[in-house]
Amino acid sequence: MSDTDTSLSAQGTEIGYSLTNSGTPVYTEVVNVSEISGFDGTATEIDTTNLKSKGKERRMGLQDWGNVTLATNINLQEASHAALLAAKKASTLLYWQVTLSDGSKLTFAAYVKSFPISAKVDTVYSGSIALTITGDITVAIAGAQ
What digits encode the pLDDT tens for the residues 78-115? Predict the structure, then answer.
């Protein structure tokens, strides 16, 4: 590793959910997650061009944080997996926290959009659980004031 490499290992990253966002939420870890990806939405572009404009003018609208996908080895007898499947079925809003390996945290509210289950020869049950974010996210960088 070079002296200029500031990359962080993703090993040790966790994601958990809470049924409530009041007080100090207690997050239940989702187990067997092998990949977290997402926050893939975009802000709306608002056209503010008028008749005196010399070129297209724009401003940014509201952020859409998009989706988060959890690649997971699935076990429906495991409590966190059963709870996420139930939340999907009931369209329950859950409150989420991703804790990065350096202690930084991303918190957001999201629905379980899909909970696919894949079964193949010589593998374990797996799936990519999709979350749809609603509202803004909060980012707390470890060590930042």
Answer: 999 999 999 999 999 999 999 999 999 999 999 999 99
Fold type of domain 14-42+62-140? Pnp Oxidase; Chain A (2.30.110)
Q: Which residue has the tokens 């709306």?
A: 44
Q: Please spell the DSSP secondary structure of 101-141, one letter per residue.
A: TTS-EEEEEEEEEE---B--TTS--EEEEEEEEEEEEEEE-
- Render pLDDT for 35-65 as a digit per residue (tens, 0 to 9): 999 999 999 999 999 999 999 999 999 999 9
Are 113 and 124 in contact by the 8 Å Cβ rule? The answer is no
Nearest-angstrom CA–CA distance, 45 and 73: 38
> Distance between CA 46 and CA 23 in Å, rounded?
37
CB 25 within 8 A of CB 16: no
β-bridge pairing 58-60 and 45-47: antiparallel
